[in-house]
Amino acid sequence: ARRPSARQAARFAAEGALFFSGFPSMPLEVKPRFVVLYGSQKGQAQSIAEGIAEEAEEHGLVADLCCLNQNDKYNLEKERAPVVFVVSTTGDGEPPDNALQFVKRIKKRTLSPDHYKHLLYALLALGDTNYANFCNCGKTIERRLRELGAKQFYPTGYADDGVGLELVIDPWLKGLWNSIKDTLSKMASDRTVQLKEDSAKEIPESSLPDVQLNLLSIADKQICEPDSKYSSSLAISDVRPASASTVSSSAPKTQACSEGVPQVSLAASLTSSLPPLSESSLNVPALPPPYLDVALQEADAVEQAVERLSKETCNEVPISKAVQLSKGDSVKTALLLELDISVSAFPSMTYHPGDSFDVFCPNVAEEVDHLLHRLGLQDQKNHRVQISLKHNTKKRGAQVPPHIPENVSLLFLLTWCLEIRSVPKKAFLRALVEHTSDSAQKRRLQELCSKQGAADYNLYVRDPSLSVSELLTAFPSYNKMIDIFACLSELLPKLQPRPYSAASSHLRHPEKLRFVFNVVEFPACSGRPTGRRGLCTGWLFDLVNPGLVFPEKAELALPKIHVSLRPSYSFRPPSDPSLPFIMIGPGTGVAPFIGFLQQREEEKKENPEAKFGETWLFFGCRYRNKDYLFREELENFVSSGTLNHLKVCFSREDRKNEEEPPSAAQPRYVQHNLLLCCRQVTDILLRQDGYIYVCGDAKNMAKDVNETLVEMIKTELQVDQLEAMKMLAGLREQKRYLQDIWA
Length: 743
Fold this sequence. Notes:
The protein is of the alpha/beta class and 743 residues long. The protein is 31% helix and 18% strand.
C-alpha cells in the first residue's frame, strides 16, 4: 500500500484532532471527546451526568456536559461524537421540565427518518416501577432517536427508584467507559480511512462503526426490559441483589429455637453492622472534589421573599375554608381546604377539572433548628450566605445550584430552598467519612457508601427515608461544620412544591379552588426515634388547625399560602360530552372526580337538551361512617342523574352485605367492584370509545386496577394475556386510559 505523503499525514492528524476535540489550535495531544446531555426534575439525573463528565478525565476523555434545554450549547444535527443521555421521568410518565422542549422537537413528524442517521448514542433512564409509565421519558427519547436513524452504541439502562437506582446505575456506568473508548476508536479509524484530500462532503452512513451490542448482566444473569421492543437494555426487575456476591447485608439474622419459634440472635442498625459486611474489604467510591465555597457574613437585612423561589407564576392566596372530612377515630385525617382565587386578583389561576396546582411549603422549623444545631451554625442563622465556585474547581459545567438564591440568610436557605428531608446521597456519606473522627463511625459510613454495603444503605437509609439531620445525629463525631454545609449545598436538591389535584369546578364554585389531602404519617425507625408527619400535609394541618378546633369562631382569619397552577392537558373529562367515562378513586383519589362531576352537573343545567355519556364512579375507603369522603355530595350526584353508577366498598367492614343473601361477599377493594361490572366496563372501553380515569395510590391500588382490567379484557374478549395487555396499552396511547397517581 502507498504511504501517505507528509502533507497528507499532517492533514489527517489535524482533522483527527478537530473531530475529537473541537479545538484544532491545540498543539499538544488532544483527548477524545463525547457529549453528555441530561434532563432532570429533582437533580438525580443531573448529578449522574455531572459524575460522568467528571470521571471522563480519569479515562483520558473529554465530556461536553449540557442540559437538554441549553439549545445554544449543543447541536445534535451536526454532532459526530458519541452522545450519552441521562434522563428522568416525572408525573404520569412526563419529561422533566428541562427536557420537555427537546422531546417536543424530536417528536415532530416533519423530521425525516434519516434525520439522526449520523448520531451514536447511549441512554440511562431513571424511573420508578411504582408508577405505570416506568422510565417513559427515556423510552420516548430512545424510540424517537431510533425512528430518526440514530444508532445505539451501548445498551440502555432502566434504573428503578422503587428498589434502588444504584442497582442498575453502578454496573451501567462501569461498562460505559470501555464502550465509549471502543466506539471513539472505531469512529477515528473509520474516519481516517474515509478522509480524502479534496473531499468536503459529509460522512456517508456506511462509515459509521458497526458497534456490537451485548446485554448487560448482574450476577451472571442476562436481563432485558420486559415491555421494551428493544433487546439491548438493562432493567431492574430481574436483578437479585441478595444473591450477588458483591453485596453483603448486616440485617438482623434469625435462628429457630427448639420450639421452632424464630429468635433474633444478632442486632444490626444504622450505626452498626454484622458479619460478613463488618469483616469485608470495601470498594469505597472516590471522594468527589468539592466545588463550592461557602461564607457567612453578618448583615443588617437580607431579602426573604418566598416568591423568588419559583420561576413560574406564584400567587399568595388566602385560605377561605378548612373542613375535616374524616370522622371519629379514622386512621387517616382527611382535610378539605378552599382557596380564594378571585379572577381580579389572580388572573393566572383559572383552572379546569383535572388540573392540579403546586403548594410551596417550608421545611419544619424544628427540623431546621436541629440541623443548624448539628452543624454548629445556630448562632449564625441570620447571616447572609455567600456561595461561589471554587476558583480552582475542575468540575465540568460547575455552577452554583440555580435553586440557591443570592442575598438570603442561612435560615431562609434551609427553610425555603433546600430539601433537608431528602435521603442523603452516598456522595454525602463518602464526604462525611473525611470529617468523622470516631473510627467505628468512620468504618460504618464507609460500609454504607460502599458497593458491598448497598443492601444496608437501602435498609437503613433509603427505605426509611432518613434525612440529613437524622444521619448527622446518628454519626455525631464529625467536624469542619462549614465544609459539611458546603457539601450539603452541593448535594441537597431544591425544596420542591407539593402538587394537589383540584377537587372542584369553577362553574360550581366561581373564584374558589378546593383540594383534599390526608395528613401523612411516617413511623419511627432506626435512626428516627419518633415518627413524623408529611412535610406539606403536616404544615397545612398546623396552619388551619385552629379553624378546625374552633369552627364557630368565624372571625378567625385563616392564613395565606403560595401556590402556582399546573394545568393538565390530558387528565380531563372527554371533550365530547356524549362519550361515557369511568372514574376510579378510592380515598382522597376521589378528589378530581368531584370536580369532574360538578362540571358535568353545571353543563347539564346550561344545556339540558344535549346528549351526555354515562358516568361511573368506583370509590372505596375503610369504614362507611369514618372516611366515606364526599358521601352526601356523591349521593346527590346520583339523585340528579349526573352520576349514573356509584360503586362503593369498605375494606375494614363486615364482608357480608346486609342487603344481599348471606352467601354474597361484599367487595373489599375497588378492583373487586370492577370485576362485578366486568361486562359493562369492557363494553364502555372497547365498544363505546369510552374513557377510564384512575386516581390515588400508585404502589398498590393502581397496579391492582391495571391487572384487573387485563383480566376483564381476557375474560370478555376471550384473548390471551399478551393480547389483553396490548389492548390496554392501546387505550393509553389513545389517551383514554389516564392516571393521576402518587407513591
